[in-house]
Amino acid sequence: MTVLIIGATGFLGSELVRQGRSAGRATDATFHSRPGNVPSALWHHLDLRDPQQLDAVLDAVVPVLVINASSGEADWATTADGPVRLAAATARRGIRLMHVSSDSVFSGADSPYNETALPDPVTPYGGAKAAPETTVRLLHSDAVIARTSLIIGDGGSSHERVVHELAAGTRKGFLFRDDVRCPVHIADLAAALWELAASDATGVSHLAGPDAVSRYELGTLIARRDGIDPALLPAGRRVDSPFPGALDVRLDSTVTQRRLHTRLRGAREFLRTGPGSAAAGEGLGGAPA
User: Fold this and answer.
1) What pTM value is reported for the model?
2) Which homologous superfamily is 2-151+184-209+251-264 in?
3) Which of 11, 17, 272, 284 is deepest in the core (most CB within 10 A)?
């Protein structure tokens, strides 16, 4: 029984493939530009904007589950229309679907947000992520919509790279003190998604860490873990900048966490341990094959 990971060359997608293959699951993967480097995975070229190509991949793989971890940023055709097309195609074939969404669907006006909260995005990317949520559930009533927050790893995420570049002076900008999120570790998130996939869960789930931190505090935590002086990080406020965006978006994952064996750690915990330490990944439940 094969699982298909869409967007498998991305940060989350590659971790899902890695965990799936490590657990002995038959895991196929899709790429847009070039295949990833996860050993033993079978790779398929896929552009979610092309319905014929999507049908061809699904017919070739015949998966029992599809996890959509793709991100086309604010490109509407990929980020909004693509998941809708995927929901229709998987529903016709009776394939279980998990769609990974984002805290960007919220404005921050009514934080914290639990699983019953309705999207009210304020950015183009948030709009592109919010649009398919309702339609995916309409077309595929058994689908899982998994909203998450800033995804952090052991050095490989874009958020970690920004901290290093700002500290080195090779990037201009600021880390906002008034922009609050609930970061999650990549290993915890992928394990939780696999666990949800093996369950009978449907509808919206929230998969974010329990610690609400500003982007500046997150940056200082990353800097300290990596031996960088936090004083090198420039701080600012989003409200003083020309960049639009929500300020306080706290995902309340309490209800989803009660259903999981996988423990979603907070940023202050997983960034206090070091990359590759024994504590990183402690308590991961994982899903049965």
Assistant:
1) 0.92
2) NAD(P)-binding Rossmann-like Domain (3.40.50.720)
3) 17
